[in-house]
Amino acid sequence: METRDIVFSIVMVVSAFVLTYVWLGRFKYSPANSLIVLAAIVMVGALAAMLLSLDMRMRKIEQQLDLRERSLRINIQSVEDNMGKKMDTVTNVVDDAMETFNRRNYR
Description:
Layout: H1 3-25, H2 34-106
Helix pairs in contact: 1-2
């Protein structure tokens, strides 16, 4: 979590409090409405926590994908190196066979 995310979460909660308090004040605010203000704060706080949790999960999945991509890249490179060595061996054998065949033809 970055500090930016925490600051945005705090701003969400404070703005929910101010918005709810001012909005209810327009309708002759009474102490019984404090429960509504508290519920709005809790709801926005839960939403902020859910967004932060989602962000953490997404970062974890991204790191796992990066690790898998690196391992696949390394595996593909090793397979490519092995295939290159085998192809060089086969090419040398075919070249030797062609050279032997050409020698027999020219005699």
